[in-house]
Every structure is written in structure tokens, then in C-alpha cells.
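User: Hi! I'm working on a homework problem where we have to compare a predicted structure to a textbook description. Could you give me the structure for the chain below?
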Amino acid sequence: MKILFIGDIFGNTGKRVLAERLESIVGERSIDVCVANAENIAGGKGITANLRKKLYKFGVNVITGGNHSLACPDSYNDYASDPNMLRPHNLPPGNIGKGSAIFTLPDGRKLGVINLLGRTFSQEQYDCPFRTGLAAVEDLLGSTPCILVDFHAEATSEKRALAHYFDGKVSAVLGTHTHVQTADEKILLNGTAFITDVGMTGPRGGVIGVKREQAIKSLLTQMPVHFETSEEDPWLMGVLIRCSAPLRADSIEQVLMPRPAAAPRGR
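Assistant: Happy to help. Predicted C-alpha cells:
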């Protein structure tokens, strides 16, 4: 199985580069299934019902999220009814939606996906991602030979620790949230693919997605600033994982692609 995981899609800029790049990547690299983190696609916070439909139209198969997953009430019905739209599994009990899914390919192969939130440096009170994550993994075992974990977390230490904790129990642990792709992709000792952060599908010319002038003003003045999505230097960022044995990955490689250059306008 070839799995393409797309890093945090940020605003309209990320949506556009995904729309222009995803189909060609899937075709050229013979991708079997595409998973995408979309918690920032609605102007940086959340996802709407309309954007959910567009992601599926572009070629995404499973949607994951993070701390902004439930920022748009417009999407609540989708979280409750769509089996392939996930929010973090370790949100407090009683939240809408679910944090794990099994996606079945047309040929019958299955991919399990689990979405988790980190707790280090977080002001929110999430359940333990290690304990709840392991329970989610155990629920999927026996139903699918391939399991991918999107760990949406701030601290590199927490991401790496969870990856080692799950090593050999899942096919891949992929970090999201910090919007800058790291260069530490590897296969761990017991066969699990890992990268600290997959990066961001969006404007690399801004500050993790927003206009750089606004980010600088916020840091200089310590005053509330309304952030807008940057449009500078759009890139698609992700990783490609190959799996041929149960709960093991053969390889993980970076996917870094700029938005196609606009055709010159005629005079």
C-alpha cells in the first residue's frame, strides 16, 4: 500500500495548491490512499461542510484534524455522520464525531487511521494520548494490517516518545501542528515510520500560514491582531509511506512541491 499523508492545509492558499497538485501526485506516484490534516483549512481555524466536500473532490480519502477541528459549527453534522472525517480521539468524552476510522480501498485493502492530540504546552485538558491511543490501536487490530497515526502536537519530545511507544504496533506515526516539515523521517527499530512534523500545505512565505507583517506586529506589541492567510510561496508538503507487511513500513519519504507557476498573461 502506498499512503500519501498531506500536512496541515492552511486557508485558501493551501486549498488551491492542493487542488492543483494532488491529482498529479496521486497519478504519478501510484498512490493508493490519501489522508490529509485539514484543521486549518477554513481561514486557519476549522473546516466547513463545503470545504469537506472539496477535499473529497480533490482526491482526499480520510480527513484528520487537531486542536481547531471543531472551530466551525457548520461542520458538526459532518463529524457526526461522515465515517472518514476524524477529530482527535482523546478529546473529552461527549464530543461529537470520532477519532479513528478504517478506510476500505476499492480492491478491499484497509487502512486504519487514528487522530491524537498532544498535551505538552497545551492549555487544554485532553485525555492521555498514550493510553487512549493504545486503546484505539487495539480496537483496530485484527480489522486492518495497516494503521496510521496523526499525532497533532507541539513538542518534538512528546511526538518522538509516542512514536517509540507505538513502534511495532502501527505502520506510521506522523507529527502535525507546527507547520514546518522536519528532516528526521525514518523507520524505527520495530518497523514503524516516523517524522516529527509533516509540514504545512500552504504559504511558505508567511509565518506558519499567516501574513508575516501581522505575525511580527503581534509579537512586537503583544496586542491582539487579526491574522489573515498569506498567499506567498504556496507549497504542498507531505510524506509518502510504503507498506508491504502488517504493522510495518518499508519506507517514508518527504513530498515537497511548490504550486505550479502561473502561465504568463498575453499582451
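For your comparison, note the following. The chain is about 25% helix and 25% strand. The first helix runs from residue 11 to 28. Good luck with the assignment!
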